[in-house]
Amino acid sequence: MGSEAEITGPLLASGDSAQAPAPEAVPPWREQVTARGLAVSAVLGVLFCLITHKLNLTVGIIPSLNVAAGLLGYFLVRTWTAALERFGVVSKPFTKQENTVIQTCVVACYGLAFSGGFGSYMLAMDQRTYELIGPDYPGNRAVDVKNPSLGWMIGFMFVVSFLGLFSLVALRKVMVIDYKLTYPSGTATAMLINSFHTTTGAELADQQVRCLGKYLSISFIWNCFKWFFSGVGDSCGFDNFPSLGLAAFKNTFYFDFSPTYIGCGLICPHIVNCSTLLGAIISWGFLWPYISTKAGDWYPANLGSNDFKGLYGYKVFISVSVILGDGLYNLIKIIYATIKEIMNARAKKGRLPLVQVQDGDEGSKLSAEEKHLNETFIKDSIPPWLAGSGYIGLAAISTATVPMIFPQIKWYLVLSAYVVAPLLAFCNSYGTGLTDWNLASTYGKIGLFIFASWVGQNGGVIAGLAACGVMMSIVSTAADLMQDFKTGYLTLSSPRSMFVSQLIGTALGCVIAPLTFWLYWSAFDIGNPDGAFKAPYAVIFREMSILGVEGFSALPQHCLAICSFFFIASLVINLLRDVTPKNVSRFIPIPMAMAIPFYIGAYFAIDMFVGTVILFVWERVNRKECDDFSGAVASGLICGDGIWTVPSAILSILRIDPPICMYFKPSVSS
């Protein structure tokens, strides 16, 4: 989820306020990309892919890990150099440019764990999701199944993941320098990296690293302790602790002691966490219990808990309607803002002088710093012919290869996607620069509906899901690229080193993301709606693809009317957030965040709310300490949980079960 932030001006490299400093020396771009940096990037890429997969396969909320990547990159390289110094080996100085390159490489790598669709469109093709929806469900055909396999997943990643890097690289100067887009996450990461590489910043960074290590250890040890009580199956242990009572537990209202979700609550804005809790209360507190009373009237009373003709169908389709309403509103809003800003920029360019004269020493100093930033950013240019030929060449390869992996989608459909993709990538990158929201999944869903309906019943389900993957990969990667270019601009990093780092990180992600997913796939029961790894978006994406082919005939009774209400409500709530004053709109919930617990359950919303309460109290008690260390605490909790996934998966593969099953039931049976 994107964080809400307001940046009033460009963040400049730090300098002495008394007098304009001499321009900072910048190492050549080849020295910014180092062997130790790539080794650290690969290690962090594995860790962050594990974290992203776990979040994708459980709740589907992925917080921004850019800051954590910068902090952990700094920690590992500093540890590396300190260890070598003990043996008398002198290492090259660790610069902020190298730190930025590591962060960029890690983000490019773990970004594919999200845009690769391992918890959404790719998993929606498998046999488990097909069987979960039901073989007798209208439009759900046995031929529209493609089970995960390392071979085709890695191949698909390689043929679609690089195009986004070439689609907008020629516009980097326009987006970063001319339009001065803020890219709040990229700017915050640059501020963090810049602070690390100053004397006072290094001291704070060391304290943050120790804090991160402390909470990482606590999280890891806690998960290890929980494992001993988790028994066999999915009903034992602290993950099923009825902390709010057994009646509330039946409606998924309980605290499950998850460090990951508490960490997400510390990272995500308060309004996101409160929105998820509100969505949980509306759905599991009122809506689902009410619809359950209509069993035998609206739907047959003897259906299973995961039958789409019953309550389960209402859960999925109402979630889809809220998600689509929120996505459609934000898409229209960002396209409108993009067109408006471009028109304003052109109008101002025609009226204003080419050189803006600023009075006073402060204005001159600011201009000198900006000039140094601009010169560094432009110096190592990436030739437009390279970007153009790279995109065309990769598009040609992908157009020929994707139909071999998915025969349901013809070559001309893939080609048509690549013709319009750069425009959508520009809209998404521009919108991310304005709002910090990456709407790649929304563009992917639009492509899913269009191509599924275009192909029709003869293969439309798989074709829509594959087209979703093509669109998501391009628009998501392009937005991440521009976000990282903003970070590089503010840390005086060469665009060429950033681009090379993106290419290397993407190549690593094409291998690491499928391999780490395969670890989960081999060790755990992925897609079980009653298990730990529900993969909620797999069902949602397959249902959307079926809906694109079959229309509304597949919906349960009265479901269309309820879905229409929630779709319109999602649009209205978003409109209220934009038209009301800021002191009011900040209390209006976010529909996208509200929709997630509709399908998954209330337990993770309670965990995230605990995180936001801790953050709220911490801010009131000691605001500075909270600002300095809350990100490190959250990153430690999430990373410790992610690291525990590896030994947990190994124990599962070796069929070593926990020795104790901690289970709760009423003391007296009535």
Automatic annotation (TrEMBL):
Residues 1-26 are annotated as: Disordered. Keywords: Membrane, Transmembrane, Transmembrane helix, Transport. GO terms for molecular function: oligopeptide transmembrane transporter activity. It comes from the Eukaryota. InterPro entries: OPT (IPR004813), YSL-like (IPR045035). One of its GO terms (cellular component) is vacuolar membrane. It is a multi-pass membrane protein. Belongs to the YSL (TC 2.A.67.2) family. PANTHER family: OLIGOPEPTIDE TRANSPORTER YGL114W-RELATED. This is Metal-nicotianamine transporter YSL6.
